[in-house]
Amino acid sequence: MEEFRTKVKRRIILASGLTLVAVALGIYAVFSLQNVPDDATMSAGFISGFQFGLIMSIGILSMVTVVKLRRALNDEIKLKVLYNKEHDERLKTIRSKAGQPLLSITSVLMIIAAIIAGYFNIVVFYTLVAAVLAQLAISAGVKLVCMTKM
Amino acid sequence: MKTRIKELRKERKLSQEELALEVGTTRQTITSIEVGKYTASLVLAYKIAHYFGLTIEEVFDFSDANEF
């Protein structure tokens, strides 16, 4: 359990760092939005909005993670529940059936690719975002089905 | 697979949450094992049986496993 405690502490540091980066990027985005030229296209606005939304989501999720992990760290039972949840064999099976470990990595990579592609071709951006949403929806659906069956 | 987990829990006035915490799993997994939706691994079956001070065969019903 001590090893897991160290792991949780490391995660808190990582999530705190991520929150700070997201806040910094969010502030920068707010100020840069004010400098949008009058002739800016709707697509350019959509990409900026998407990026801002993504940054805010990462920030909020990281903040929630920090609070959750801090609470677990101060409570032995909550820490054990968290440990059990992460190492639960049934959940591991469900996750692997839904293809989650690999799907999470590919989704993040595709989102990064979509943002970069958005600067060059808006169609590629929309396609990649749609593909990510579709694969996440399918994975969530498979996970739900597995959870009701297992 | 049929098990005696629910019965043993009731005898000891133990909740699913408490049992899950003791054997290193989640409440949902205990529920699934109790209703026969999920078959526990050998390690988890051993942990559950060991917690109740019984053997695996005394907790889990393996009669279905003999059917081919």
Automatic annotation (TrEMBL), chain A:
Keywords: Membrane, Transmembrane, Transmembrane helix
Record-annotated membrane-spanning stretches: 12-31, 43-67, 102-120, 126-146
Superkingdom of the organism of origin: Bacteria
Entry protein name: DUF2178 domain-containing protein
Organism: Acetobacterium paludosum
From TrEMBL, chain B:
PROSITE patterns in the cross-refs: HTH_CROC1
Domain HTH cro/C1-type: from-to ranges: 5-59
InterPro entries per UniProt: Cro/C1-type_HTH, Lambda_DNA-bd_dom_sf
Molecular function GO terms recorded: DNA binding
Pfam families from the UniProt entry: HTH_3
Source superkingdom: Bacteria
Signal peptide: none
Alphabetized UniProt keyword annotations: DNA-binding
Keyword Secreted assigned: no
Name by which UniProt lists this protein: Helix-turn-helix domain-containing protein
